[in-house]
Design goal:
The protein is α/β, with parallel strands linked by helices. The chain has one domain: Rossmann fold (3-Layer(aba) Sandwich). Helix content is about 50%, strand content about 5%. It is built from eleven helices and four strands; from the N terminus they run H-E-H-H-H-H-H-E-H-H-E-H-H-E-H. The protein has a four-stranded parallel beta sheet with strand order 1-2-3-4, sandwiched between helices. Helix 5 packs across helix 6. The two termini are about 20 Å apart. The relative contact order is 0.13. The model has no long low-confidence stretch (mean pLDDT about 90). GO terms for molecular function: hydrolase activity, acting on ester bonds.
Amino acid sequence: MLIHEIIFMIITTIQILTRCYANATNETINNASMFPAILVFGDSTIDTGNNNYISTIIRANFPPYGCNFPGHHATGRFSNGRLIPDFIASLMGIKDTVPPFLDPHLSDSDILTGVCFASAGSGYDNYTDLATLSLSVDKQADMFRSYVARLSRIVGEEKAAEIVSEALVIVSSGTNDFDINLYDTPSPRIKLGVEGYQDFILSGVHNFVQELYNIGCRKIMVLGLPPIGCLPVQMTFARQKQNERRCIDKQNSDSQEYNEKLKKSLTDIQSNLTGSVIFYADIYAAILDMATNPQSYGNRQE
């Protein structure tokens, strides 16, 4: 299954790089409690339900979403079941699922082990959020500050700072920026061109990671772009015939180019942020294989 391949790759990356950090700092790592909490930022790939609580049409709180989720009900996740953060949290022994921060029923226990701030439809570009009425990464950072304040009231400022610094932070964003501002709809960003817009988004990544660091995060994983040209919405817009959908090679090569830039950028960012572990997670290859070889995963094209 595709999701398991991606999760295995991400978990392996987390373990290798965290152990490198532990060796450098003489810390002892226990697999069962490698991270005390998980904190999630980004878009629909990892939004566990925040959009249920804001005024946007970008929602997944209706069937068939959630048909394989525990309880068989839609939760706001853009999935038939759990999302990548849920699987990671479970496999790392943190919790079974990651709740959305805007859930009014969050318990102190939920806060202690981390929450999700992601919002479907969001991106690093403010034009993206204006188009989708989602929560921008800036708003997600504000929500995070509110989270830290509540966490501090529960365990005290010193312990709260420790939890945040040791938490696994996952960031997955950028796809909507390219879809909305470069490929699908008229936008002032088009004048930047592909390379210029890539650099513009990378500056957004830098600013957001810096902001997370300033708030107290130290272990940050940033996911790269998927093969955007193989996303169903992109193939549908570009199709020449009613029942013919193919991956768009140019958009895929744009994604690869961006990912290479992102890897270098994250290395540079880490070198300037003392005590940080900032690493790149590749999801491109696994999703491309799924899109181009669906039969290998038990799927078939109608």
